[in-house]
Amino acid sequence: MIKLDWLKVIILFGWLLSPVSFALQLIDGENFLYDIGQNGVLLKGSLDAYAGMYQLRVNGTNYVGQVTGLSVDGREVYYGTFTEPGSGLEIERRVYVSKTQNFARFSEILRNPSDSSLNTTVEIFGKLGSGSHTVTVADQGHFLMTNDTAGSKPVLLHYHSQVNNPIAATHALIGNQLSWIYSVTVPAQAQVRLIYFVAQTQDVAAAHRIATFIYGNPTALYENIDAAAREQLINFKPPKPIPRDEGESIPMPFLNLDELRTGALAETDPWSHQRSATLADTYAVNLESGETVTIRMAANFNAYLYLFQDKAGEELLAANDDSAVNTTNAEIIFTADHKATYYLEATAHNQREYGRYSLALLKGAINQPPQAHALEFELSQLTAPATVTFTDFSLDPDGEIAERCWQFGDGSSLLCNTEPNITHAYEQAGRYSVGLTVRDNEGAYAYHNELVAISWTPPGPGVVLPVGNTISGELAAADSRSRTRSSAFADQYRITAVTAGQELIVTMSSEQFEGSLYLYDEYYQRLHRNDNRNGNHQVELRYTPTNDGDLLLEATAFKDNTLGKYDLTLALVSPTTLPQLLIESSPALDNPLQNLFIARLPESFQATLFRWQFGDNSSGVSTDQAIVSHRYSREGNMTVTVTAVNADNQSVQSSKTFMLNKQSVTPQALFRVTPLFGQKPLRVFFNNESTFNSLLAQEPLRYLWDFGDGEVATDANPAHTFQLGGTYHVILQAFSDQQPAAYSVPITVIDRHSIDIPITGIVRERPQVLLAGFDPMLVDVLDTEVKIFAIVRPGKTPLQTVRFLQNGSDFQMIMQQIATYANGDQHYETVLTFQPGSFPVLTLSNLLGDQAGQYRIQAIDQAGQFHTFPNVEFGNNPPLAIVSQSLNIEPLHQVGVRRLQPQVLAAGFDPSLLYLNDTLPSLNYVGDNQVTIKAIVREGLSPLQSVTFQTNQGDWQLPMHLQEILPNGDKLYVLNYTYPYDQFEKGTLSNLFGEQPNQFTVVVIDQALQTHRFPQVKIGNFSR
Q: 745-781: string of b/e by CB count within 10 Å (b at 16+)?
């Protein structure tokens, strides 16, 4: 038995020495994360790009300031006033993250309350980057660029000074510490501002593009800085809009009430009064004194609206850039203080943006929904158990927040109150998806999701597993239980000094039992496992970390409650390290003498050739694929040998003996459950009724149970307690001579205290299947099950049935609700089990559709109304006047099937029922002009680089942006696409996703340049 060896020395950076740590997480236009922490410091960024950068020091004194609020659009964080003790200078910080561009902006506000001018030194400093491989790749007088030579982190841009500006900074590198210094004179009784720009980018070329963009000094750099504040800038000067010629004739048609007008920005249009060198159309609006109107703009570009008092555009009355909603809609609600003609400008965010748009002028003001902004969270400590205080900065632009409902992501009950501050205790380490739904005083809802990560390090559990040494351990009755298998004893080891990209090999051997290995990260998220389904006394686990940091390894046995001694070794993969080669097989369904063989090797070996001998005196086979099929002419024991060779001429060989029979030895998996449903916590007993041909099989059956809540078991007849409400698809895999079979049964656990939560998305009379797909999309040829899932939004009437159907046949499967997300959408799922080898090695690209032989998912409510995926319907689908409720079922955190490659698991449209209004627009609703394309993506072993929505013909593509991380770690990517009202006709669009020239696809690419395209289902060599 091993003993705990707690880490005695905890090394933290100076900015982490405080007992309180917090972050506000904002995402820029290219989907890079800015986690803005205490005193305005960037903590980690995307992929741990930073390690506490952009600290502020004035006259040698560090700035100290707490978050005081967010801007109205939620893009800028405000920090409190700090008084520099030596001079009395008052300092504030603001950090702005662009929603459309790839940068963040820092503002340092210096206020001199004295009667004398103050000479001030302002220093920005911090670590060059987070990794040990960070180097400078560009060092200019006004900016610096850094890169991680290991290739695992973003390229960073630090742009501190405008070219040719008299107020500029000088920067210095001392070791890995970067700093730049401004020398500033602040006049008496005056206020000045310094700004600078930072960015995380995919590569050096992208960083240079952003530097060029900043050099061009576009107006986009100065968003959220009002006219008075712009005059206070001393190191950057915003551009002045170029005035129109005095004699220029600008057409200004009148926009009338209840009019729906379409237009287009063209290259011949004049420039905006407000945005330099940006095209604009101008309209005149007649309003009475005290009259309130709503002005809406929809476009297929980033739309802006400006309302002026005068034709010359000198007096701006109102503006809106859709900052609280999306990037292609804009809306202004305005009340005239006197009878006059006002002037409306329809323009775009960027220069040279062309395209069609729609304008509507509606009488009165509608209730604007609340704006749910990023959460600030403070931790009482960095490790579990941890108490977290959340602060909500959501606001209602035309009223007040009446209720906040919190989901903490750890299985605790939904909690609703009115206070913006709330405290919650997390007992265990983990990554928790915190959802907040806010309601305003007129009943409108909005929601926001935030990820909170609480680690177990330092000091961390277990003893350190050293590299290159063998540790002898023993599973004993006094040991703790496995996190994955509550009926198995396990020893815990800590793997330290982990380097991203350095592949690890853990080998476990025992003469007394068959081992299993489970690997977790610092949040107890299971990263990898080797369940040892082949029944070997030596098991090997290989894993390539994507981040630096400690890992937790569990050494246990394949069979539950097993005791005994073992040896454990950790090694680092080098170019000369040869991997273990495993052979697996599966007989054909129609002929057991026809066998499929797979050579399992780690990706790092990169085999280019496989030489097979099948043990029956037949000619060998050479192939570049790890999968081969062979037909035997007779029964008997056959020793199969394969040699794999890579480009470096390294080779590995393995042999395995298989018993070949004319009769199949594949087992039949089956079990009964008592009870099938009940109230939580629910104790369930499983009666195994699996069968196999015991006369032909060489080994007895082995079992692996997956209970659907993240735990597994290996007993023949286990019992299991389900702690949370929901539906669990329990899967039994039975193995006979390594031939698997699977069977699944859903179990429903009732939570009597569950509270319905409001649906915050676009709700219709009918239900909507928003997106659907398969888990996994990369199916191993020897897999025995695949999950089919869908995200469904109920309509006015509760759902009755969600089912998976095949067109032109009687095949159907009922799907069960297993989770409700923070916005009220419901996750439905079913498990399709099949015999291994049922599907050949191939790619299926059009499984979902309305053609014969294709599949669809149909949601039917209790009134008999239905919607079928993948249909997108344009017609009479007005929004509901009431807020629908959704049964709250707490999402689970178990990790899905992960492959080396990334996977787009599902995609769809929100809403999938769109409203086209034939009548004049009304105040309540004009009609749909926007659809959100959504996709659920699962990472492989490399971080994601891009997710795009694109056509199969031509080069049209749009980047999708990360909206939230789901409780199981999958990522939801979205793209808001706005279209003028008259772009689509009424009708149903089917088969939008596929590989035909007129179809669309969602493509994910990771940093290893591995890719997957939805809706491709690939069947091949995709071992877990």
A: bbbbbebeebeebbbbbbbbbbbbbbbbbbbbbbbbb
* Cβ neighbours of residue 618 closer than 8 Å, sequence gap 6 or more: 630
What distance in Å separates the CA atoms of residue 979 and residue 751, rounded to the nearest whole number?
A: 43
Quick one: which of 322, 371, 387 has its CA closest to 99?
322
Decide: helix, strand or coil at residue 782: coil
**How confident is the model at residue 321, as a pLDDT?**
65
Distance of CA 850 to the CA centre of its chain: 30
**251: preceding bond cis by omega (within 30 degrees):** no
Cα 968 from Cα 542, distance rounded (Å): 22
- Rg (C-alpha) for the chain, rounded Å, is 31
User: Rounded distance, CA 215 to CA 962, Å?
Assistant: 28
Give the residue from 177, 175, 27 showing the smallest Cα distance to 101. Answer: 27
Q: What is the reported pLDDT for 774?
A: 96
Residue 21: CB atoms within 10 Å: 17
What DSSP string runs through 661-714?
Answer: -SS----B--EEEE-SEEESSEEEEEEE--B--TTT-SS--EEEEE-SSS-EE-
Q: Which residues fall within 8 angstroms of residue 669, CB to CB, at 6 or more apart?
A: 690, 732, 733, 734, 741, 742, 743, 833
Task: Answer whether 791's CB lies under 8 Å from 825's CB.
Answer: yes
State how beta strands 726-736 and 702-706 pair: antiparallel
Separation between Cα atoms, residue 54 and residue 51, nearest integer Å = 10
pLDDT in tens, 947-997: 999 999 888 888 898 888 888 889 999 988 877 766 778 888 888 999 888
Residue 187 structure tokens: 């006049």
For the stretch 915-960, pLDDT in tens is 887 655 554 555 677 889 999 999 988 888 889 999 998 888 888 9
Distance of CA 682 to the CA centre of its chain: 32
CA–CA distance, 56 with 160 (Å, rounded to integer): 13
Query: What proportion of the chain, given as a percentage, has pLDDT over 70?
Result: 94
- Alpha carbon distance 714, 808 (integer Å): 40
| Burial letters 157-179, b for 16+ CB under 10 A, else e | bbbbbbeeeebbbebeeeebebb
Find the helix or strand (DSSP H, E) in which 384 lies. Answer: none
| C-alpha atoms less than 13 angstroms from C-alpha of 983 in its C-beta half-sphere | 20
Cβ contacts of 473 within 8 Å, gap of 6 or more: 1, 2, 491, 555, 565, 566, 567, 568
Alpha carbon distance 711, 427 (integer Å): 19
Q: How far is CA 218 from the centre of its chain?
A: 31
What span, in angstroms and rounded, lies between the C-alpha atoms of 293 and 829? Answer: 46
The percent helix, strand, coil of the chain (3-state, each to 5) is 5, 50, 50
Q: What is the 3-state secondary structure (H, E, C) of 445-491?
A: EEEEEEEEEEECCCCCCCEECCECCEEEEEECCCCCECCCCCCCEEE
Closest to 982 measured CA to CA, from 937, 935, 921:
921
Strand extents, DSSP E, 581-675:
582-587, 594-600, 607-613, 621-623, 627-631, 636-646, 651-660, 671-674
Chain-centroid distance of CA 965 in Å reads 4
Distances in Å between the Cα of 970 and the Cα atoms of 451, 769, 824, 948 are: 12, 19, 18, 16
Among residues 325, 261, 260, 257, the alpha carbon closest in space to that of 292 is found at 257
DSSP string, 408-439: -SSSPPPEEES-SEEEEEE-S-EEEEEEEEEE
Average pLDDT over residues 730-748: 89
Confidence category of residue 176, pLDDT binned at 50, 70, 90: confident
Sign of CA dihedral 173, 175, 178, 181: negative
Q: Residue 302 corresponds to which amino acid?
A: N
638 sits in the region (left: phi over 0; alpha: psi -120 to 50; else beta) called beta
C-beta of residue 25 within 8 angstroms of C-beta of residue 451: yes
Cα 94 to Cα 230: distance, rounded to the nearest angstrom? 14
Distance CA 384, CA 426 (A): 7
